[in-house]
Automatic annotation (TrEMBL):
Species: Mycobacterium yunnanensis
Membrane-spanning parts: none
Name the record gives this protein: DUF1501 domain-containing protein
Classification of source organism: Bacteria, Bacillati, Actinomycetota, Actinomycetes, Mycobacteriales
Length: 397
């Protein structure tokens, strides 16, 4: 294996946008002062983005249980009508999503159907890149939240990723979100690694210099949020659920009135090419058991009542089951938006299971319209720098 030099590592980080930190050079005392001096005003929207990595099967999440085509194309993989949590006389949720079904009944869950982008790509990497950069036509180096950061000032705490690897969506041309340190390294190892990578080098390009600054800021950013993480595993229901632990950190930040408008969390494991039912149902249960208490906690908090959660995946799956009782990479799928400010219900048309594009669902909702709606109504921002002009407000907020 070639030696991983500091320069090569910086170049790799620039190329993938997989930074090990954001640029939030602020410590816990400064964070406390920030929360005291400039707390979020009452009524200020807070956005929590949940990325479901792997390509979640939307048809076995939001299930068209009354559609004969669903059962015909998935004779063993389909859920029987009596297994489904009915939302109306056509559609229901996976049986693992009991909490989300309750939120639907409370009117605080919106489901945008058939969400994708023009000319869908079946690659995990390219499709996720498109979702996170909001640029279907051509690759770009900035994410949609990163461009929002670029356009809205220099407060380093406006966006926070809960996890050490900063996703492309949080990288701007001039600013990045803050990120927690990787848990895989011991603290001493991590500190030493970040210190080495943060050393000034006169040969750095401007882009490499920005990455180096991000690494150097990691140690301080980690201290900033470390105090919140300390209580994350006290609840037995949370331990072992990585998404619940991440959302506990978010909840503690929100309650402390930290001046953060966007939080990013993630859950993997949705690439279900074989034996899908058990695997996906466990992952959806993990999602449900993390989101349900978080949303209830936020609804009862004076600051949390303004929190909106969006959960999405890079693509859905193909309509027909494969020979391994799984599903292969597809296109459109549902996006879930939940929280007290949400106008619950269905948005966008339900894709046809018979009028297909070479075995894939046709897109009925553009993902940039979802982002547009969130940026306008939750973040309170001009959406054009992030998603371009001419987008549509979907009305779920």
């Amino acid at each position: 294996m070639p030696e991983l030099t500091r320069r090569r590592f910086l170049i790799a980080s620039i190329g993938t946008a997989g930074l090990l930190s954001g640029a939030a050079a602020i410590g816990w005392p400064e964070l406390q002062r920030a929360a005291h001096d400039r707390p979020l005003a009452d009524g200020t929207g807070i956005l929590v983005l949940v990325t479901m990595y792997g390509g979640n099967d939307g048809l076995n999440t939001l299930i068209p249980y009354a559609d004969n085509a669903y059962h015909d194309k998935r004779p063993e993989l389909a859920y029987a009508p009596e297994e489904v949590l009915h939302l109306d006389d056509q559609l229901g949720l996976n049986p693992a999503m009991k909490g989300m079904a309750t939120a639907w009944g409370d009117g605080t869950l919106a489901i945008v159907r058939g969400v994708s982008y023009p000319k869908p790509d079946h690659s995990h990497f390219r499709s996720m890149d498109i979702w996170q950069t909001a640029s279907p036509a051509e690759p770009v180096s900035t994410g949609w939240i990163g461009r929002w950061l670029d356009a809205t000032g220099d407060d380093p705490l406006r966006a926070v990723n809960i996890g050490g690897v900063l996703p492309p969506l949080a990288v701007g041309a001039k600013a990045t979100a803050a990120a927690l340190s990787p848990s895989g390294l011991a603290p001493a190892q991590f500190d030493a690694t970040m210190a080495a990578l943060g050393v000034d080098d006169p040969h750095d390009t401007p882009a490499m210099s920005m990455v180096r600054t991000a690494y150097r800021a990691t140690q301080t950013a980690d201290k900033t949020f470390g105090g919140f993480e300390s209580g994350k595993a006290k609840n037995a229901a949370i331990r072992g659920n990585s998404l619940a632990e991440q959302l506990t950190v978010v909840a503690q930040c929100v309650k402390a009135v930290v001046p953060t408008r966007v939080y990013m969390v993630q859950l993997g494991g949705f690439d279900t090419h074989a034996d899908e039912r058990g695997t996906q149902q466990r992952q959806l249960q993990t999602l449900d058991e993390a989101l349900t208490p978080f949303l209830a906690d936020m609804a009862g908090d004076p600051h949390g009542k303004d929190v909106v959660v969006m959960a999405y995946s890079e693509f859905g799956r193909r309509v027909a089951a494969n020979a391994s009782q799984g599903t292969d990479h597809g296109t459109a799928g549902p996006v879930f938006v939940a929280g007290a400010p949400v106008k619950g219900g269905f948005y966008g048309d339900e894709p046809s299971l018979t009028y297909l594009d070479d075995g894939d669902l046709k897109t009925t909702s553009d993902f940039r319209d979802v982002y547009h709606t969130l940026l306008v109504h939750t973040v309170g921002a001009d959406p054009e720098p992030s998603v371009g002009a001419g987008r549509t407000d979907l009305g779920f907020l």
